């Protein structure tokens, strides 16, 4: 117990020092020469990082943005989407009649340092006591059904964005952005229905008919962004990126400083969730290239492009 308290105090002290140093750096350097007010800005040129990072890729769909048919043809087989390109576009247009036509994103600025915490669902979060450190960030991105109640000391209490797909959806409070990760055309129909009168997708699709979420805070990941993550960050390994890895790369596009928690296997080597007992001890990552994703997170940490907290 004493070790845990010392570790927590150490983490908070390090965070305070980093914030103070960030403030000093932002004061001492000419702001018009730097893209952000952090000690180090992600968008600053770095050959290794820029080999993967493409700032011009739009992370979110909007009412005025149309993906190419080439992107659609890559995206369609991921989970067996029905319909053609025209059908896809009609469903997207219908959704944007209900949700904001363009995403609400905090833009970079020389006098601002945007900090992100990306909270995965790994069992390595148990007894980590990362909660206060996670809550310290400006933007806190959670993934799928990651739970908070009862785990506050380890995972924090705040959420600004939650990245989900229909099968993993949970109710959200009125201040949290619902970031839809669409893997098939019917996902757009589901969101339109689930936020209004209810969705009936038949007895064989196990999703909730309705969810609680603020429709004015809905954001939709761009299939072009999903392909970019798969091609540039994962070098086309696996069928497609996991929701968690999409959330992590999204943070690199939304923030100037990124901290990552709750990714990777637990201490026993199992890909488990921190809130539930793992029944299948041979559980792997399926279509997602879990090992490749984990190695990339480690490399980003080694290159000092994010801070990776692996748990105690």
Automatic annotation (TrEMBL):
GO cellular component, one term: Golgi cisterna membrane
Subcellular location: Golgi apparatus, Golgi stack membrane; Secreted
Catalytic activity from the UniProt record: a ganglioside GA1 (d18:1(4E)) + CMP-N-acetyl-beta-neuraminate = a ganglioside GM1b (d18:1(4E)) + CMP + H(+); a ganglioside GM1 (d18:1(4E)) + CMP-N-acetyl-beta-neuraminate = a ganglioside GD1a (d18:1(4E)) + CMP + H(+); ganglioside GM1 (d18:1(4E)/18:0) + CMP-N-acetyl-beta-neuraminate = ganglioside GD1a (18:1(4E)/18:0) + CMP + H(+); a beta-D-galactosyl-(1->3)-N-acetyl-alpha-D-galactosaminyl derivative + CMP-N-acetyl-beta-neuraminate = an N-acetyl-alpha-neuraminyl-(2->3)-beta-D-galactosyl-(1->3)-N-acetyl-alpha-D-galactosaminyl derivative + CMP + H(+)
Keywords: Disulfide bond, Glycoprotein, Glycosyltransferase, Golgi apparatus, Lipid metabolism, Membrane, Secreted, Signal, Signal-anchor, Transferase, Transmembrane, Transmembrane helix
Signal peptide stretch: 1-20
Tagged with keyword Chloroplast: no
GO biological process: lipid metabolic process; sialylation
Disulfide bonding pattern of the chain: 116-255
First-level EC class: transferase
E.C. number(s) listed in UniProt: 2.4.3.2, 2.4.3.4
Pathway(s) annotated for this protein in UniProt: Protein modification; protein glycosylation; Glycolipid biosynthesis
GO molecular function: beta-D-galactosyl-(1->3)-N-acetyl-beta-D-galactosaminide alpha-2,3- sialyltransferase; beta-galactoside (CMP) alpha-2,3-sialyltransferase activity
Entry membrane topology: Single-pass type II membrane protein
Keyword Transferase: yes
Record's subunit section: Homodimer; disulfide-linked. Homodimer formation occurs in the endoplasmic reticulum.
Annotated family: Belongs to the glycosyltransferase 29 family.
Protein name: CMP-N-acetylneuraminate-beta-galactosamide-alpha-2,3-sialyltransferase 1
Organism field: Perca fluviatilis (European perch)
Lineage, top ranks: Eukaryota, Metazoa, Chordata, Craniata, Vertebrata
């Amino acid at each position: 117990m004493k070790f845990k308290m010392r570790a927590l105090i150490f983490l908070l002290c390090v965070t305070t020092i980093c914030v103070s140093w960030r403030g000093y750096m932002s004061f001492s350097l000419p702001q018009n020469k730097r893209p952000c007010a952090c000690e180090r800005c992600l968008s600053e040129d770095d050959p290794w990082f820029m080999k993967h990072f493409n700032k011009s890729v739009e992370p979110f769909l909007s009412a005025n943005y149309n993906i190419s048919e080439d992107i659609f043809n890559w995206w369609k087989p991921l989970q067996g989407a029905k319909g053609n390109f025209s059908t896809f576009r009609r469903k997207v247009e219908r959704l944007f009649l209900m949700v904001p036509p363009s995403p609400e994103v905090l833009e970079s600025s020389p006098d601002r340092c945007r900090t992100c915490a990306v909270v995965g669902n790994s069992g390595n979060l148990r007894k980590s006591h990362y909660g206060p450190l996670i809550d310290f960030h400006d933007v806190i991105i959670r993934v799928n059904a990651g739970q908070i109640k009862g785990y506050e000391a380890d995972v924090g209490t705040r959420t600004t964005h939650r990245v989900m797909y229909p099968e993993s959806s949970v109710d959200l409070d009125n201040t949290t952005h619902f970031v839809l990760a669409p893997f098939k055309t019917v996902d757009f129909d589901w969101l339109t229905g689930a936020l209004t009168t209810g969705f009936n997708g038949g007895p064989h699709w196990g999703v909730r008919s309705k969810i609680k979420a603020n429709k004015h805070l809905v954001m939709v990941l761009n299939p072009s962004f999903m392909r970019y993550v798969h091609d540039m960050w994962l070098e086309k390994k696996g069928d497609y990126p996991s929701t968690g890895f999409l959330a992590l790369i999204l943070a690199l596009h939304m923030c100037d400083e990124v901290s990552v928690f709750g990714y990777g296997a637990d201490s026993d080597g199992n890909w488990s969730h921190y809130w539930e007992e793992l029944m299948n001890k041979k559980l792997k990552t399926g279509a997602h290239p879990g090992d490749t994703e984990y190695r990339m997170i480690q490399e980003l940490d080694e290159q000092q492009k994010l801070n990776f907290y692996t748990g105690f």
